[in-house]
Fold this protein.
Amino acid sequence: MKRIFKITFMITAITLFLASCVKDLDKLPIDPNTFTSNNVYNNPAAYKQVLAKCYAGLSVSGQEGPSGLPDISGIDEGFGEYIRGYWYHQELTTDEAVIGWNDQTVKNFHSQAWGSSDVFIAAMYYRIFYQISLCNEFIRESTDAKLDERGITGDDRTNIHYYRAEARFLRALSYYHALDLFANVPFVTENDKVEKFFPPQIKRADLFIYIENELKAIEPLMINAKANEYGRADKACVWTLLAKLYLNAAIYTGTDRSTECITYCKNVMDAAYTLEPQYKNLFLADNNLSNEIIFPVEFDGMRTQTWGGTTFIAEAAIGGSMVPTDYGFSGGWGGTRVTKAFVQKFYPNLQKGLWSSPTPPKKTKSYPVLYVPGSYQTPVWDPTNTTTVVASVASDGKYEGYLELPAGAEFKFCPQPNWDHSWGGANGILDPNGGNITVADAGYYKINVDTVALTYTLVNTTWAVIGDATPGAWSTDSPMTYDPATGLWKVILDLTAGGLKFRANGAWDINYGDKLPADGILEAGGDNIVIPAAGTFTITMKLGYPDYTYSIVTYTPPPPPSVDSRAMFWTAGQSLDINDITSFTDGYAITKWKNVTSTGVPGSNQKYADIDFPMFRLADVYLMYAEAVLRGGGGGDLNTALTLVNDLRTRAYGDANGNITADKLDLSFILDERARELYWEGYRRTDLIRFGQFTNGTYVWPWKGNAKDGIATLPMYNIFPIPAADVSANPKLVQNPGY
Amino acid sequence: MKKRILWLRYLFIFLAFASASVVYAQEITVTGKVKDAADGSSIPGVTIVVKGTTTGTISDIDGNYTIKVQPGAILVFSYMGYQTQEVPVAGKLVINISLAASVTSLNEVVVIGYGTVKKQDATGSVSAIDSKDFNQGAISSPQQLIVGKIAGVQVTTLGGAPGGDAVIRIRGNVSINGNNDPLVVIDGVPIDNDATSGARGSLSMINPDDIETYTVLKDASATAIYGSRASKGVIIITTKKGKATAGTGTAKKFVHEYSGNISIYTVPKTVSVLNGDEFRALVKQKYPSDTGLLGTSNTNWQKQIFRTGISTDHNFSFYGGLKYLPYRVSLGYMYQDGILKTDNMKRASIGVNLSPSFFDDHLKINVNAKYMSIDNRFADQGAIGDAIAFDPTQPVNDTKNRSGYWMWTQASGIPVTQATTNPAALLDLKQDKAKVNRFLGNIQLDYKLHFFPDLRAVLNLGMDHTRANGTVYVPEYASWLYTDLGQDNRYSQDKDNSLLDFYLNYVKDVKSIKSKFDVMAGYSWQHFYVSNVNINNNVPHDTAHAADILLKKQYFLLSFYGRLNYTLMNRYLLTFTLRDDGDSKFSSNTRWGLFPSAALAWKINDEAFLRNSKAVSQLKLRVGWGETGNEEVGDNWYPYLPVYLLSDRFSMYQFGNIWYQTLRPGGYDAKIKWETTATTNVGIDFGFLKDRITGSLEYYYKKITDLLNYIPVPAGTNLSNFIWTNIGNMQNSGVEFTLDLKPVVTKDWNWDFNFNVATNKNKITKLTVTDDPNYPGILVGGISGGVGNTVQVQSVGYPMNSFYVYQQVYDANGNPIEGLYVDRNHDGKITDADRYRYKSANPDVTFGVSTTLKFKQWTLATAGHASVGNYMYDNIAANRGVWNNLYRPEGPYLGNVATSVYDVNFTNQQFLSDYYVKNASFFKLDYLTLSYSFGNVIKNTTDLRLSFTVNNVFTITKYKGIDPEVNLGSSVGIDNNVYPRSRVFVLGVNLLF
């Protein structure tokens, strides 16, 4: 009995003890910085902090800056930041940017050769849906029913209503990016819970309608344009996004909606936004002061740090001979540059360097000529080429002329532009049945042919000016240089008043002057050319058909790099052409983004930028308006469009010199102007697609399709693939075509 | 004054004890005969020694012997196949003795969860090794004791850093993202696997000299008693106890033991790079316009960062029995300099064990208390890679800049932050120090009920508390932290692990039905708590707002468990276990889980037809099945809760003029639970020729379901793209074979030979919902070079950590062609889709071999281990063995090139070429030791042994990198920046007095 009692007592004691311990399993987090959804929303102030995360999701990569406690996984944290990912997709895929790094598949963006397993594409996709999920959570937790439950009233409640509308705006923004990049995506709203399920896939056109309706629904719920705190969205943000949606509607839905685009552009333009007076200030550390930016994504070197965002955009662009501290950073990452095709948006004729030479003067007279077909021509042996001739100024059977010949060049003389008759020969004797005449050395040859005596002479020449007007007086030549592209001999000299002549090979055997009265035509042994007054002159000489001419004009220094202040290229040590994408010095660098203020003060941190990213700005709205008008949208007019475009160009040039006339304003001008105005701001891919120039061969740029000069690519690349990981995780998803 | 008297008293007692063991008396001659206890036949060749000495003799052909001894001596009779007996002479002149046959090793008792079992009655796969079989030489962490010793237990040290932390894998990996480290139970207290701030690994804090036995539970029938933590296998460590030495009751026995060693750690091999002159010539040739960057020195940077390290290890212990109080006290001190300059670890430890009994042994109490204090200075291991990459033409020092070290600078004089850091500066200027104190202790009360003696009640209270403090200081002029104005961090961590275990054990032998029942049922409560504080004292430009981060978390684990051992006719054994675990990491709907197991064993050698066999001394067939779990979900201890986390002050967002710390809702899976592993195990244990040959052969098959995966969830369904959830299946199967041979056993010669071999085949069988063939899997295996590059993948149908690379194309001479790969999917382009899975980092077969040869007082021992079929990505060759490292335009700066560049002649890195995936099979001789036992050097009471050991003697491999054995835990099979394992020369002393 006693034993049973003891055992019973023991069992009872143990049972009571165990029951109390089981409660230990229900413990909530004990960290003071950690809450659960059950308790966090009881505090009205927490709503704004959760809203701040909805905004910060566009900016930082996790809960620790610049990295740590990441929002999304499966990718380097810096790569998973929203703006950096967006920039990769919108810029690296186009003529505006290449990147040189060995980071995973990053080079596939520019090659347009990405696949469904691409980690960067997955990161952007998941970052977009992270934003959508985050906003859904806030929208779910801020319903009136929930606020009632928690007893939140008064100003708190009013503010939370605004927060909720802003969360819906941010969700719509990310859905817009999903629409543009991925087209057919999973669709979730606040009505879906956080649990295991398979969201349905929404078609691109249906998603368009959802975003349109959602934006229209929140328009009245948002704070008025420019009336909200800096950093938070207002009605103008909704209008701008609607305008962008409608501008691209033909791509998304097959139906043009330019009229609606104009409507919402006008709404924005009627609000109190103004163009930033200095273009460059839009991309500096204190661009938060600008009245042009409609919706910024904020960054701060001390408080909002990330390896993505404007830190990436600005710092990755620094390398080569650029001095990082000039841009407010302690070092450069040596990554991003532009292609030649983009540079040509500012300098259309630019081929090998920034400044092309002037074209030679036009000729008026004509003389009898002998044609000189030969191996040096392009194409070779062409007796019809009228630029490679020798002429008889006196029509006396004695012909003279100058040709630039490579070493070992062979040629003949033909009296007509055909092979009916020709002279060859050797040792200065013309022979109708002779072999080809040859020269051993390359050079600029003076050629004399006597068709009467049947002789010829070849003299290799280099040219100089000499005379008391030149620095070397009559004793020392001032050599000229020959430009094969233009056929001009040229020298820039400081001259004094006096005379000068041209002579070859440092001797007087071959010399030219201009027989008085001077007429600009050179004669052998002619009179000294008179220089009336001292000055710096550009002296050129053309020893070609039909006349030997010269020009001596007052030298004017070349114009400044551009009169368009938006062309911010770094060219020192950079080549225009890209031979090796991995080499930073291949391709011009860009100096648009700088971590210094408009007064030249470096940003708060030399590692992380203070620059806010202008997600929406007024200039884009101007160009959208103009484009929509040109696309035939109603409610706008061409005059306004032209004024708006010229407003931007006036800002760019500093005066009206860059303004265009109405006849120049067409869609192709708009596309190029958008490149000039908005490059490296994340617009380019969408623009090229809207103009049908992103894939296929309508427009190619260096390394498009992974070919040096660019090749056509497949239209499937207009839409990015749904990441394989999500197709695998969600059986309701169908992959985009082609992938 | 009073204090001093107390001290004197202790000293007196100490001396009294010490002298008590020194006894003087005259020698006598003892004779006798040794017989077999079973049949009375005489046994020749029995070794008879005087205990504590090497004085001895051997019985003759008739079993007779004669020996001269002190009257108070103890004789030890030992013979292969018989139980050793100790007999006090106590003045007797004739001592006849009968030796009972032993079932030798199988008669040993092995520790299993919540109890012990005779090895011959074990039904599960249990391997035990005790201190005499441990690895020898320079042992700085407990894991090193068992490298290569147990079939299916792969122990890989993480490199040559002091403290020798290691990764242990029992029968391969069972979890893709969960932790794969086995559960470690020290004296009944399960410890956690989480890294401790400021420490070099959780186990490395324990003094290896305090460890008595390692028991590894491999199959589910053995491990299931540990339920939701048992899938990865269980390692039970028992520490040395006080010994109630022979003659208990005299209460005078007192043994001192000292063991110490001095070790010299040498640098075995460094990476071959260009020297200064070769480098200068190449830069002049390839970058003629940038020769201005060249220096005039010839610096071997690897020589600059490595050194010969010295380590000493001292252990002093004394033990014995004071009346009813057996005790052991140990003091240890280890000092180790890493071969990487400035790297250092010091460990002081004290251990106390008391194991008294009360009430006629009805109540046994066992108290263990261990206190460890570790001082670490960590060397920045980035210096290893930087030493390979740094321009060899530059000098180490430069008095012109403030740091005193040469660095790459911009024209303005400020450092090029992108450039390689001067490795010597990295080591010297960074002061990364930590102090960790840990208390690990338990008190176990084992009470045999007075009123019901078949029932035992056992209560075990344990605690494992760690307090860590560290500082990291880098001066503001250090080139690599120039922008951050240096670094000045303080951190501290408190970790508390508390345990309450209670179980009842009922043992009943029911002779009427030839049955024996052994039933155990218990309850366990365990609490884990971690608190971290990080203080950043120098946030640039913002000194007023020093950033400090506080993170606290805890979890609880509650369990009910039971075991039934049923033995029929002493031949047929059944074990059934069940554990019900409740885990606070999971929601109330999913947190409880049942983990059953069952096993059958048949002792065939006890059947009539084998009982009298001379050839077969043991033969046992075992079959077991069980389910176990794995509940480790990374750092997240609230994976089922919708947790909102506040951002730090560098991740705020501005509204108006105010910056807000943001609140982020985290991803979670409300239905998350542990992953489940079902293991089937079949094994045969055998012993032949009176156990001169013993061993076992086992086959296992593990099927893991509901893998705890950190995996992409359908976009939009959760608050992050990756969450911890249960999805996916995996399997492991393998064969293990162990053989212990004793080829020579004579009085003077004794030769032991142990061999084990294990195979493991791992395959992921399910990873996602849809089994979409276009989904390559989860990319893992991050490498150095570029950002975010990975070379491995977890894919369905392939082993974990399969390499995921392009197939290299070679020219006619067999040289790889840069950037040219096989178009495996024949679509005419090389895209991501042409990557393929090529080999895996996990070995197909592992071997372990060890042997000990004894001749009189000499002992020669050696052990090695081998791995076959493990492949390695040579990240050093891939990243450093290309020409474009010579000149980097983004600085600009110059960098050295590994001479492996001559094998490929690549200009740019080709990270994803399968060329760099190399066969890294190897054999390693882990140690070779020679020792000499001097016996009693002072009277009969002192025993001195000297040993000389070489650790990491040699490696045989085709792999060209520094070391084919690389396992950094998370990135297995990627050879980069690895702290080289030293070759160590050790002189050791053991003194017993």
The longest strand of chain B covers residues 487-510.
